[in-house]
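Treating backbone geometry as a discrete language has practical consequences that deserve illustration. The sequence in question and its structure tokens are set out directly beneath this paragraph.
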Amino acid sequence: MVRPRYIIAELGICHDGSRDRWRRMIEAAVEAGADAIKGQWWSSPEAMATHRGGNLELFQRYQMPLEWLEDIPSMVDRMCTVYLPQDVSAIVDRVAKFKIGSWESEDDTLFLRYRQESEKDILISTGGWTDIQLKARCRPARCFYLHCIAAYPTAREDVQLGAIDRYGLDGFSDHTGLIRMGGYAALAGAQIIEAHLRDDRTDPRNPDWFESLDPGAFAEYV
């Protein structure tokens, strides 16, 4: 089996608002051999609550300061997901590649904003896309599509890795929290794999806890 060429450690909101926890996750991702480390940033909890229809308190609690991205070392690619079009310009010069989540990939708003700002690679999750959308998707240069099931966490029986080959997708965004799923995805043809990582001290009540791997499990996953 050929090792996937690109493995992304998604730190998400598992920092619980602690920079020390954030930095420990970065260290764990580097030690495990990740090729990229990704955070999530939004400038306005209020705008996020409106955009996602979520709880304002949640977006206030897990808001990450933008300067934390500087903690990701140069030996790996720095990535960050944003959700609001007005946030694109703030990260465009801070990251090596862009990521668009499933919710935001349903229209071209973020994609077009990224292309206005830069020609860097864009990775797009396809959770929630229909069969027609997957078959009809365009393939712009430096644009890569990841198979994704948007349920958090994703049950093993719902993963549907066959979609990677069926639709000619480039990779897999993993929300299962299962150590062997990355290997299965590689066998199914994924060349880019994104998996969630948490710190040993991440609060089990954190919304990302169940689909995230602890440092030892993440190292085994890689």
Q: What stands out?
A: The beta strands are 6-12, 36-40, 77-81, 97-100, 122-125, 143-148, 171-174, 192-197, 212-213.
